[in-house]
Amino acid sequence: MVKHEGQLGLDRVRQLWHLLEPLHAVLYYAPAVFEEAAALGYDTEERWPSYFPYRAAPLGAIGAERVASAFYSFSPRMVAEHIDPAWKIASAEALLQARVRGIDRAYRAILGDRTDSPEMAEAAALARRVAEAADIAGRPLAAAHAALEWPRAPHLQLWHAATILREHRGDGHIAALMVAGLDPVESLVSFAAIGAASVERFESRGWTPAQWTSARERLTARGLIDADGTATEAGRELRRTVEEHTDQLAAGPWQSLTQDEIDRLVELLGEFWVAVLSSGLLPSETTLGIGRV
């Protein structure tokens, strides 16, 4: 019997995100994926020249303003720096094909024989059911990824499902930030203020010192952070509300599985999660604040 909405605890929803996020994020860090981008002509000395077109490709060759709107927390200037030349280097379709090739190679390098294991096939089937149950109304990045053709190989299906679900959650997170009255740069300043990650890590989003200071002043005026940049109790409570709202908005697709199936998926994903984290490819600190909120 499938669980009714509301029965799945929000802690479980967040745990599932924590398990799936690294499986998706390999796209932006694995050498094999960078090699595929380099073959298309992208600069791979740093990750941003390929990050923006790789992530935006399901939306098509759209302009920087629309990409910045969908990505939300990145400086529009930074988005334009990388998106404006991106579609002149390769088409969106070429990028979609390159990222699948890269993920195939990356998963095989990280997971070895487990890539083609029965456990992988089982996990992929469960994750796909959840991804296909996601309500994509009002969620542009989730909708764009959900519209793509499903890969045939189970490990690629698992990656695709993880990607749809992380973008589904991300779209919901933006809605939660907007309800909380946090604009793109304020969302980062307020998150840094609770210690989710260092200010230096959040600076990777491309905002200028003047923009960061202005956002801090606005949040200080609202009583959300102190003069030294740390969150007040009101600021911490607002961020707790944002994260709880995000979990609530991410919970829907998981109602497609029974509790036993969710438990089984958690069990299956654990081994893959450990392998990805043990690869050393992912940074120890991210702007997502996983494990700190």
UniProtKB/TrEMBL annotation:
<dbReference type="Pfam" id="PF21863">
    <property type="entry name" value="HTH_67"/>
</dbReference>
<protein>
    <recommendedName>
        <fullName>SalK</fullName>
    </recommendedName>
</protein>
<dbReference type="InterPro" id="IPR054058">
    <property type="entry name" value="HTH_67"/>
</dbReference>
